[in-house]
Amino acid sequence: MTPKFKAQAGTFESSDIMVLIEPVAEGSGRQVDISSTVMLQFEEDLKTCINQVLDVMEIENVHLIAKDKGALTPTIKARVETAVKRSLGIQEGTL
Amino acid sequence: MKNALGVEIPEYIDGLGELQPYQGVWNSVLKGDVASQTVPTVLKAQKAHVSKMCDSLEDAIKKSQPFDGMTVSCHHHLRGGDGVLMQAIAILDKMGIKDITLASSSLTSAHDGLVPYVESGMITRIFSSGIRGRLGEIISMGKLKHPAVIHSHGGRVRDIMSGRIKPDLALLAASAADEEGNATGAHGPSAFGSMGYADIDARYAKTVVVVTDNLVEYPCVPPSVRQHFVDYVVTVDSIGDASKIASGTTRITSSPMDLRIARIAATVIEHSGLFKNGMSFQVGAGGASLAVAKFLREDMKRKSIQGSFMIGGVTSYGVDMLEEGLFKAIFDVQSFDAAVSTSVLNNPQHIEITCDQYANPNNCGAMTNKLDVVVLGALEVDVDFNVNVITGSSGEIRGASGGHSDTASGANLSVVVCPSFRGRLPIIMDRVHTVVTPGESVDVIVTERGVCVNPSKPNLAAALKKAGVNVVDIRDLKKEVDSMTGIPAEKKLGDKIVALVEYRDGTIIDVIKNVTNLE
Amino acid sequence: MAKKKRRSMLYIPGNNPAMIQQAGVYGCDAVLLDLEDAVALNQKDAARILVRSMLETVNFYDTEVCVRVNNLQTPFGLADLEEIVPMQPDNIRFPKTESVQDVKDFMKEVRRIEKEHGITDPKMTIHVMIETAKGVANVYEIAACEPRIDAITIGGQDLTADMGIVKTPDGAGIDYARKRIVMAGKANNLDVLDTVFADVNDDEGLKEETEYIKKLGFAGKALINPRQVDPVHEVFNPSENEIRKAYRVYSEFYKNTKAGIGVFAIDGKMIDAPVVQRAVTVLEYANIDIKDIEKSLD
């Protein structure tokens, strides 16, 4: 599936992660940009976790920007899932 | 050579000389090698009625006859508001003095301005109990010529007495002083309370300069620093930012997690066997550590317990407990807020003490050795109960040893309070990045997810379990926390030693290597 | 097995990861992960997904976990159930329950979702929340209509709003509702749980209100800040004197029962079954296992 709308989920609070999704043209692939307060410790882990959710949701073409404030795995997964669902127009939410 | 914790310690470091490896908490004392290196204090004969007053700080510094390779010392009672040290370094730099050893009892956020002087090579050695901010980062990157030496508060006194640190010029800021150099922090517009760290500098420095923005009529009372040690007195417009030196009163945290940890810690103390009349107590000044005082205060009232004394780092919260009669006296080496200064000045049960009396491992009456309970913080702890309070999650220097290892070694019960993880960073490691306080002297680690008792104290563990405290094995807790946070990536470190961590007896307990991914 | 204590039930906003991941360590008996009033309308989807994700992995230790979903009349209620019911938290709290039909509609969806997910022996219980005048009027029927209900709770803020009155510190406006709901709960052997106390800085006021609702028969109270846990526990926990007395009553009861004596006296007062039952309850709140007492006497 390919995201249709700009969408975001999460907050800038501590232990949360803000995920922004920008639709891209079909066939342009995934671009995941991450910044984090624990970048030096968990960059790889963040990438893996975000990509896992995108894999499960079968999102191949997307630009995803994540600003992390030390979120734990279940939070990261939830925020990515929410942002993707919003960008697909499956769920209403903040834009 | 390896020390008792298995850390490889170089036998010799250029610019710092030979090193002794740490051998255990009480090894030096047991072996008796404590007093052999003590150096004499300086003799300073002077004719009668000679004025000590100088025209300016520059004038005072010139009179001390500064030279390349000198050691400049100062105290950190002005904390983040210090305006004296930076002025002095700028003057010395203007005079072209190089290769300076800086020996401050600690360095704070007020000292980021030292960075260019370290980078230019004007300052080449630093002795301090704490290094923070940008200064800590550039030292971690390897930009200080010789490794910084991190000592404890008590260790600094021993360092000066033993000649490890030989102050040539001591700049002692005071919120009130007279023309002879009697000086105090207990009153004046920039009052900061106890002046406990300055005493050792006054006694041992070749030239002692009292710096004040509040020259009072002779005599200045109370004379925390006394005139017979002081060479010069100088008035400046300001010794610093009063609002950052001491502000109002210290507030107890409102963080639910810190309060929860503190509540558990107070319960641990209550059931430790030490919670009884005559108990002595020390607590930190912030976060969960100070909050323990709140719960202990309630518990003491509920059970009608009267303690003996408090020491430390004193906050207005401690003063309140003194005034309520929960303790009979406070021994104050360092005061944290404005309300404390008033108490130091007016309450005879609030006694200003020197750092020598507070924590020097080589005297026969350190207060820390008479302590029942201390509550301490941690940046990291490990499964062997070692504590790191100096390096951060990237391995960078960003904290303070302070009195951590002094009080932990002396207290009958040393309690470390910390969350099990902070912003996704797990706090319990297999081995802390830097050992400041050895696990041998740490009895209990209190987290929100369980209380870990040092295996050397099985009776304590049994008593706490019986009281319903959630006692857990530290290795199990580590596993649980790791499963929540994930395992952080390895730190990016080089081979260069950028700092040495000195245990309170002067042996080297750990070394800090340079961090390669800092910018 | 001793009945679970529900002295304190802490509301945690469903869209707040920092608080949810720590929910098990605040020392309260239960947490209420809230998808309803504590979540902004445009974040309902995010909270629902977050709570589900947290339920999958977070260790809540022995803290009871309840999720408050939105009412089925809202656009969010059904989606909440679809997401949360498969996770089988300890209980689901159903807000603004007004009638037996409300419960039936709600349970129909719960059972359908459980069936779809192959949950054949669901342990999840239901908390109904009474927060309208109509709900108070129907509470006896509501309390009796569904065996999976194991607690009723009163929502003071919404109830006063529904009644068109102001909630006062003395609780005058909801006093009748409190008592009626307690009686409906007791008649059906359900825990009855009280509404929140809004001023987190007023420990004394909180304790006073808790003393009062304890006397009425409430099993516990909903909280909005972890700092309220200790004051509430203090009220519900028996005093040392009460514990001593209960210990003695139970010891005598056990000895006499073993000796085949039914009714006995302590200090000239007859000890009958209700007195023993009260002693057992006190010992439970004091974390004393009556089996340990029995062992010490054998």
From TrEMBL, chain A:
GO molecular function per UniProt: citrate (pro-3S)-lyase activity
Protein name: Citrate lyase acyl carrier protein
GO cellular component, one term: cytoplasm
Assigned keywords, A-Z: Cytoplasm, Lyase, Phosphoprotein
Gene that specifies this protein: citD
EC number assigned by the record: 4.1.3.6
Organism of provenance: Ancylomarina salipaludis
Highest rank taxon of the organism: Bacteria
One Pfam family from the record: ACP
Record-linked NCBIfam families: citD (TIGR01608), PRK13253.1 (NF009726)
KW Phosphoprotein (keyword) present: yes
Location in the cell: Cytoplasm
InterPro entries: CitD (IPR006495), Mal_deCO2ase/Cit_lyase_ACP (IPR023439)
Coiled coil (UniProt feature): none
Keyword tRNA processing: no
Automatic annotation (TrEMBL), chain B:
Matching InterPro entries: Citrate_lyase_asu, NagB/RpiA_transferase-like
GO biological process: acetyl-CoA metabolic process
Location in the cell: Cytoplasm
Annotated EC: 2.8.3.10, 4.1.3.6
Keyword match Transferase: yes
Gene Ontology, cellular component aspect: ATP-independent citrate lyase complex; cytoplasm
Coiled-coil stretches: none
Catalytic activity: citrate = oxaloacetate + acetate; citrate + acetyl-CoA = (3S)-citryl-CoA + acetate
Predominant place of localization: cytoplasm
Taxonomic superkingdom: Bacteria
Lyase recorded as keyword: yes
Keywords assigned: Cytoplasm, Lyase, Transferase
Molecular function terms from GO: citrate (pro-3S)-lyase activity; citrate CoA-transferase activity
Name of the featured protein: Citrate lyase alpha chain
TrEMBL record, chain C:
Chain segments annotated as transmembrane: none
Keyword Magnesium: yes
Binding site for substrate: R68, E131
InterPro entries, alphabetized: Aldolase/citrate-lyase_domain, Citrate_lyase_beta/mcl1/mcl2, Pyrv/PenolPyrv_kinase-like_dom, Pyrv_kinase-like_dom_sf
Pfam assignment, any one: HpcH_HpaI
Keyword entries, A-Z: Magnesium, Metal-binding
Gene Ontology annotations of biological process type: oxaloacetate metabolic process
Gene3D superfamilies xrefs: Phosphoenolpyruvate-binding domains
Residue ranges of domain HpcH/HpaI aldolase/citrate lyase in the record: 7-226
SUPFAM superfamilies linked to this entry: Phosphoenolpyruvate/pyruvate domain
GO MF annotations, alphabetized: catalytic activity; magnesium ion binding
This protein's record includes keyword Transferase: no
Cofactor (UniProt): Mg(2+)
Stretches assigned to coiled coil: none
Annotated residues for binding of Mg(2+): E131, D158
PANTHER family: HPCH_HPAI ALDOLASE_CITRATE LYASE DOMAIN-CONTAINING PROTEIN, LYASE BETA SUBUNIT, PUTATIVE (AFU_ORTHOLOGUE AFUA_4G13030)-RELATED
Name the record gives this protein: HpcH/HpaI aldolase/citrate lyase domain-containing protein
